[in-house]
Amino acid sequence: MSLSLDALRSAFAIRGHARASRAEIVSFRDRQLRKLVRHAYHAVPYYRALWDEHGVHPDCIRGAADMPLLPTVTKTHFREAPEIERVAAGLDPELLIPAASSGSSGRPFMIRRSWLEQNVLHLPRVRALRSYGIKGTDRALNILNPKHAHARDNKIIGRTLVALKLQTQQKRVSIHLDPEAIAAEVRAYRPAMLSGYPNMLARVSGVLQREPVRPPSIRVALTGAEALTPDLRRKIEARLGVPVRDQYGSNECNLMAWECSHGGPLHTSDDTVLVEVVGADGVPVAPGEIGEVVVTALHTFTMPLIRFRIGDVAEQGSGVCECGAPFGTIRGVQGRMLDMFPLPDGRVIHPYWLSESLIMDDPDWIENFQLTQERIDRVMMRIVPRAEPTSERLATLRAHGVELLGAGVDFELLIVDSIPSELSGKFRPARSHVTSSYDDIVVPALRAPVPS
Questions:
Q1: What residue spans of 211-350 are helical by DSSP H?
Q2: Selection from 323, 332, 283, 286 nearest residue 307 by Cα
Q3: Were both Cys, which of 121, 203, 339, 409 would link to 432 (CB 3.0–4.6 Å)?
Q4: CB 61 within 8 Å of CB 70
């Protein structure tokens, strides 16, 4: 059976799993794990060499309970292998759809997927919206970074489902617009669901509180991509008058978990990704314990990601949610603490804009990076290179940074040997010393100092 036919059958099954039993989802997940592990061993040189080194054969893996037999994989180790050894034999990486990781961990790299895999990964988001009462006849507005679809990712499945009223109509609004302009887009579009990064949603919701959507249309606000603090949640809910629900995803696996429609834990997307919360020994921790998040993308066969460490920490939840949904749970994801940067000209930019604009077209030369706003008129980017950058590359990067930040802002680029983590052990890829939702830093007057 071809992988394409298998992917289509899996997509059909996933669409019905919200109404399935827990046993049915576990059985589906474990079958998918067995297929994936066998495929990776026989078709992907990277995994065959890694597992042979650890003395593990794919026949030992019967399901999720056996996955700790396999070693975990770090981004650094994964990228050390040539790309041709990380994709399935016979595939040309250049003919696959590229997706650069967001760099939210400070360690960007390029992912490759087939057209069908790219579309299957969208299904959990449709399911999450359904759980919040958002139907195919509703509209959703997403405040995100501008994204240009790859030429091979023609979105035909999504467009067909929208036309048939089986999928919510989506509108994407650039996060680079000021909150007043974004709020105007929201009022004109009148969505049932509003989503975006927590910090930006808090700012836009303040405008919508003064000038709301009339008549009211928004029924739920979704957040993701950065940590949702209790304070940010309270602000958004109070200003919009609707519940806020958080989502947990990554470019490696797309949506991995979504908050229960009743609030509380996050449901893990067990039929598209195996989410393990593990201790230092790589073995899953008990419910209520904290550990590192390790993921396995169940439907990515072109460039498999198996027991992949994405750099986040979470609390292991119960086997199933009290709401009765047939999915496992996690709580308290600790990751992606990303401050927004206020600038002297009044703009407030998201660090994703800087990182994606500066390095995401060619991320593989970078081992690690960090953006720090030291003052309102000074931003520093530290890079730990994997390979020595040319002087031309650095000059281009500096010039682009200066152009993005604009007049009156110093942009300093430093090539360093290492970047230290916080005292807590958490790495902060973007931090502002001017204003921060995570450090309780707020400078009221967001203006450049007046020259003496």
A1: 230-240
A2: 283
A3: 339
A4: yes
**Residue 228, both tokens:** 């949702």
Strands, DSSP E only, in 347-440?
Answer: 348-349, 366-375, 378-385, 410-415, 430-432, 435-436
Instruction: Tell me the CATH number for domain 341-442.
Output: 3.30.300.30
Tokens of 328: 């496992």
pTM of the model: 0.77
What the block records as the tokens of 67 is 């996955």
Q: Quote the CA–CA distance of 264 and 247 in Å, as a whole number.
A: 12
By mean pLDDT, which of 25-39, 57-71, 390-404, 427-441 is the weakest? 427-441
* CA dist., res. 432 & res. 222, Å (int): 24
Q: Which residues contact 369 (CB under 8 A, 6 or more apart)?
A: 103, 106, 108, 355, 359, 381, 382, 383, 384, 419, 429
- Could you tell me what percentage of the chain is helix, strand and coil, using 3-state DSSP and rounding each to the nearest 5? 35, 25, 40
Tokens of 14: 């996933």
What sign for the dihedral angle of Cα 264, 191, 150, 92? Answer: positive
Q: How far apart are CA 136 and CA 163, in angstroms?
A: 9
The residue written with tokens 């603090």 in the block is 229
- Summarised one tens digit per residue, pLDDT across range 404-422 is 999 899 999 999 988 876 6
Type of residue at 370: Q
CA 260/CA 318 separation, integer angstroms: 13
DSSP 133-186: T--TTSEEEEEE---PPPTT---HHHHHHHHTTSS-EEEEEETTS-HHHHHHHH
Q: CA-CA-CA-CA torsion for 341, 343, 348, 351, nearest 10 degrees?
A: -30
Angle ∠(436,439,440) on CA atoms, nearest 5: 75
Neighbouring residues of 359: CB distance < 8 A, sequence distance ≥ 6: 103, 108, 366, 369, 383, 397
Domains of the chain, residue spans: 1-335, 341-442
Q: Is the peptide bond before 215 cis (omega within 30 degrees of 0)?
A: yes
Lookup result for tokens 């600790």: 334
| Partner residues linked to 245 by β-bridges | 222
